[in-house]
Structure formats: C-alpha cells, structure tokens
Amino acid sequence: MSNPKESHLATAKRILRYLEGTLNYGIMFPHQKEKDELYLIAYSNSDWCRDKVERGSTSGYVFLLCGAPISWSSKKQFVVVLSTCEVEYISACSVVC
Q: What's the CA gap between 93 and 82, in Å, rounded?
C-alpha cells in the first residue's frame, strides 16, 4: 500500500470485473420449517493407487449444511499406502480435521 504500481491497479480491476460478472452466483439453502432442523452431513471417498506412475491415492470430501454444499476438497495423498483400509483411514482423518 505504500508503493502501489500499475500491476496492482490492473489486478484490482480484474477482481472487480470478476465480482461484477458473478453477482448472481451463490449457494441456495432450502427453506427450513423449524429453526431446530439445522443439520450437517459429511461424505468422504478415496481411491487406491489410481495414479499408476507415482502409486498415489486421492481423497475427497464434501460437507452439506441442510442439503447445500458448503465445503469440499479433493487432494492427492502425500503418502503411498499398501491397502484400501489405509486409504479410507487417511481420508476419514482429513474429513475430521
């Protein structure tokens, strides 16, 4: 902020153009009948050694709040595992974290 450049202004303009073009995007939450019906569901999944070159596995998860997705991720695991049980355990740990 003490030494702004033309590239900073160009980046700020690009962000504003992006926001202007995505004003109608959003996550729709379903109407609740009662206030006490707020619920959170988490799903996780993984595949074992899908990457044949590096023998890596992939983990993914999604969190749903009242049926609407609020957080999701899909990442390649950092370790090489020897069984599907280990893959599922690592995937479940990433969801809990």
A: 17
> What's the average model confidence in pLDDT over 1-25?
91
Instruction: Specify whether the CB–CB gap between 40 and 91 falls below 8 A.
Output: no
59 is a domain residue: yes
Name residues whose C-beta falls within 8 Å of residue 90's C-beta, 6 or more positions apart in sequence: 46, 57, 59, 77, 79, 81
Count of structural domains, the chain: 1
Owning domain of residue 57 = 37-97
- pTM for the model: 0.60
Residue 83 domain-assigned (yes or no): yes
